[in-house]
Specification:
Pathway: Glycan metabolism; L-arabinan degradation
Family: Belongs to the glycosyl hydrolase 43 family.
Number of strands: 51
Distance between the termini: 33 Å
CATH class of the largest domain: Mainly Beta
GO molecular function, one term: hydrolase activity, hydrolyzing O-glycosyl compounds
InterPro entries: FA58C, Galactose-bd-like_sf, GH43_arabinanases, Glyco_hydro_43, Glyco_hydro_beta-prop_sf
Protein name: Family 43 glycosylhydrolase
Number of helices: 2
CATH superfamily of the largest domain: Glycosyl hydrolase domain, family 43
Helix content: under 10%
Largest sheet: 7 strands, antiparallel
Radius of gyration: 30 Å
């Protein structure tokens, strides 16, 4: 355990040391309805901005009437602390505040009552922070409307009664604040003020939005001052933006170039203007900048590059696998971790993907090649005759493999097969290696003698006519084995059933038992594990976005003596604030190398069969009870020495694609505290999640984001611009739906105009990742997906 944390600490220290002194840039922003909180993006050149944290929030808002986090403004103090203010509501008279040393862990959120003394004030919008070095003082300024207070301006009907001016307070410690005063009072309605220091002229530039609505202005203008204490002239420049509505300016100097980024909120995209003469003249460069999809009003600011590299190193490890996988179980044999699960294809439960075994040496970098189950065409729809004599069609499916066990050099897999006619059972398969190939352990094998897989016209599943010729161990799903210290085997399956296994692990011994649990209702995905002489039985409750995991404890045997633990018996449930919905059907993995218990589980995804595998560490109290596990996207990380130490050039490349799939939004009602004492229930709240499919996501080191081409794109491709010529040795492509197989062609170019093929996969291959070697010198790489799902979870690029 200590070795792992020491390695991580040294890695972060190395990052901070290697890059110290160089500059990079961060952008704080919000997305969607602003309830999910703070988002960050980074850039090295001011043009190409990539999301951090897998595009997920760093901080969920908790103050204000509406608990929003709009317009987050961040300023770094001389001591390195990051201070942030934000809009907490459309109608609040307070603004939100928090601080952080690393932009990951934040202080308790506070409400600064900047306008509470003005009972008629309508709002406190878009607060901004600016640190004045000469006076060592922070200025916080924002827009407020106070009816009748200022010169009236004509307004449209939709903005009637709104006439904003900029107010401010000062502070040196964010504990005491000056009285609120007027900061900027021009002869127009003004919002969204933002200040940047001119590094050449040593004065201050403020960009504001002219908010007049009748006739509409909705543009950005500039004013300057030598000293902030003397205020800014109310005579402003002509508009620096074009004939579109713009708001939320974020000025940033990148070297001697001044950019002003802004929200083209009617166009649902971000834009930018640029000045090469310190604000004298401006050009629109909106077509040259790229931002994360859905970005809204925020702040751009320069930091030491070590801050960005540390944020990138402090990555999230959930989801664990770059694919849609459910019902996970993990076993370790030798120096390799093996993950077994249900392959999801977003077709619902009526069809599943090809089963595969994912392998890893370090618990972070996972791969597979081919399937461990042969003899099935998982994509073929078979016809059968039901009990009513009706002709129907269906698919063979492989579900919920239990943890693989080893005995006498053989590996036993207990997994559910569902036949086209929906008959299902748990079967025993055996192999000479943990990654297969596996064969049916009972019966004559996969096929009826001499008949092959398909039967004749009498029907696929008629007795003795083909199909699966092995009898099921259990005529039900979710078989999960457990081997006790004395070598006795047991198996558990859905609806709280359990039985002893025969010594050869192929049959049940004795009558099955039904485990009585304090919480009732449908249950599946059982788990049995043992720790310090205590047997733990885990069973699921509810389902979908409201999956929860309860448990019982026994000190007698794996089949008897189970009792409800003291305290909370539901130890895992949804954590919307951590972006985790419906942690369901999982498994416990004990890692001897780190002496840790890890719970692997499926996460709801977008609903249906879009699930992914998550993993989090389990903790126990002194009496053996399980501490409440709050699931998160941080995950587990490395459990062994990292197997990939090369620099991934993709992390600093710019990506663009032939098309991008339209965003997908899920709205669900989640029970947030189901672990209340019986018979109480938790509260239910509605949450929204939107997945986007941008090209930049292929280089964010997240298995939860991906680029996908539009459904109408008949010739999908994605391009990497490395920004300089590099000598490329290898590319790794983690395709979406990799179990369905892909073919592809990779091209390279020095100038982005003249291309030559440098690698090609012409035959459909089922694996992840696909690898291209020996590419050579190139600045641009372009990947054409010829067959298979048109999407990538990750694209890794390595240099010779």
């Amino acid at each position: 355990m200590k070795k792992v944390f020491v390695w991580i600490a040294l890695s972060l220290w190395s990052v901070m040391t290697i890059f110290a002194g160089e500059k990079a840039y961060l952008f704080s922003y919000f997305i969607n309805g602003s309830k999910d909180g703070l988002h960050l993006a980074y850039s090295y050149d001011g043009l190409n901005w990539l999301p951090l944290n897998g595009g997920r929030s760093y901080l969920t808002p908790s103050v204000g009437k509406d608990k929003l986090m709009r317009d987050p403004s961040i300023c770094q103090a001389p001591d390195g602390t990051f201070h942030m203010v934000w809009t907490s509501s459309w109608t609040d008279r307070i603004i939100g505040y928090a601080s952080s040393r690393d932009l990951v862990h934040w202080s308790e959120q506070q409400a600064i009552p900047v306008m509470m003394h003005e009972p008629e004030a309508h709002n406190c919008w878009a607060p901004e922070l600016f640190y004045d070095e000469p006076s060592q003082t922070y200025y916080i300024f924002w827009a407020t409307t106070i009816p009748g207070r200022h010169k009236e301006v004509p307004t449209s009907e939709s903005e009637k009664g709104l006439n904003h001016r900029i107010y401010y307070v000062t502070t040196k410690d964010f504990r005491t604040f000056s009285k609120t005063k007027m900061f900027f009072n021009p002869d127009f309605s003004v919002i969204d003020a933002a200040i940047v220091k001119d590094p050449k002229h040593e004065d201050l530039i403020m960009v504001v939005k002219n908010e007049n609505s009748n006739p509409p202005e909705k543009n950005l203008r500039v004013t300057r001052t030598k000293k902030i204490a003397k205020g800014f002239p109310t005579k402003v420049s002509a508009p620096i933006t074009g004939k579109y509505w713009a708001e939320g300016p974020a000025p940033l100097f990148v070297g001697d170039t001044l950019y002003v980024y802004f929200d083209k909120y009617r166009d649902h995209r971000y834009g930018a203007v640029r000045s090469l003469d310190y604000g004298g003249t401006w050009e629109d460069v909106s077509e040259q900048v790229s931002f994360p999809r859905g970005i809204r009003h925020g702040t751009a600011f320069a930091v030491d590059i070590s801050v960005v590299e540390a944020l990138k190193s402090n990555r999230n490890y959930n989801p664990l696998i770059p694919d849609n996988v459910a019902d996970p179980s993990v076993a370790k044999f030798g120096d390799t971790y093996y993950l077994y699960g249900t392959t999801d294809l977003d077709y619902g439960l009526n069809r599943a993907g090809t089963p595969v075994v994912w392998k890893s040496k370090d618990f972070v970098n996972w791969s597979f090649e081919g399937s461990h189950i042969s003899g099935f065409d998982w994509s073929k729809e078979y016809e059968y005759t039901n009990d009513k004599g009706e002709k129907k069609k269906g698919y063979f499916r492989y579900w919920a493999p239990g943890r693989v066990i080893e005995q006498d050099g053989k590996y036993y897999l207990y997994t559910t097969f569902v036949k086209p006619d929906e008959k299902m059972g748990t079967y025993v398969l055996v192999a000479d290696r943990p990654d297969g190939p596996f064969r049916f352990a009972n019966g004559k094998g996969l096929f009826a003698p001499g008949e092959g897989f398909l039967a004749d016209s009498k029907g696929l599943l008629a007795p003795g006519e083909g199909g699966i010729d092995s009898p099921a161990l259990i005529d039900d799903i979710d078989g999960e084995p457990f081997i006790d210290d004395d070598g006795t085997g047991y198996i558990y399956w859905r609806r709280r059933n359990a039985a002893r296994l025969s010594a050869d692990r192929l049959h049940l011994e004795g009558e099955p038992v039904s485990l009585k649990t304090p919480r009732q209702g449908y249950s599946e995905g059982p788990v049995l594990f043992k720790r310090k002489g205590i047997y733990y039985y885990i069973y699921t409750l509810s389902g979908h976005q409201n999956y929860a995991n309860a448990y019982m404890m026994s000190r007698e045997s794996p089949l008897t003596g189970f009792v409800k633990p003291e305290g909370n018996d539901i130890f895992l449930f949804s954590s919307p604030e951590n972006q985790v919905w419906g942690p369901g059907h999982g498994n416990v993995f004990y890692d001897e190398g780190t002496d840790e218990y890890i719970f692997l589980y499926l996460e709801y995804g977008d609903g249906g069969t879009t699930r992914q595998v998550y993993a989090n560490r389990m903790e126990f109290n002194d009496d053996g009870t399980i501490k409440t596990l709050i699931p998160d996207i941080r995950g587990v990380g490395y459990l062994a020495t990292p197997q990939e130490t090369r620099t991934n050039l993709a992390l600093q490349a710019h990506f663009y694609a032939s098309s991008e799939k339209a965003p997908r939004t899920s709205v669900v009602n989640i029970e947030t505290q189901p672990n209340q004492p019986l018979p109480d229930k938790g509260s239910v709240k509605s949450y929204t999640r939107t997945h986007t499919y941008q090209a930049a996501y292929v280089a964010d080191e997240s298995n939860g984001t991906r680029w996908m081409a539009a459904d109408t794109d008949s010739s999908p491709y994605i391009t990497a611009d490395l920004k300089e010529i590099r000598n490329i040795s290898e590319c790794q492509f983690y395709f979406t739906r990799p179990t369905e197989g892909h073919t592809w062609r990779l091209e390279k170019s020095m100038d982005g105009k003249h291309w030559q093929t440098c690698a090609e996969q012409g035959k459909v291959q089922v694996r992840s990742p696909h690898i291209a070697n020996g590419i050579g010198k190139a600045r641009y790489l372009r990947l054409h997906i010829r067959r298979g799902d048109a999407g990538l979870w990750e694209w890794k690029i390595y240099e010779k």
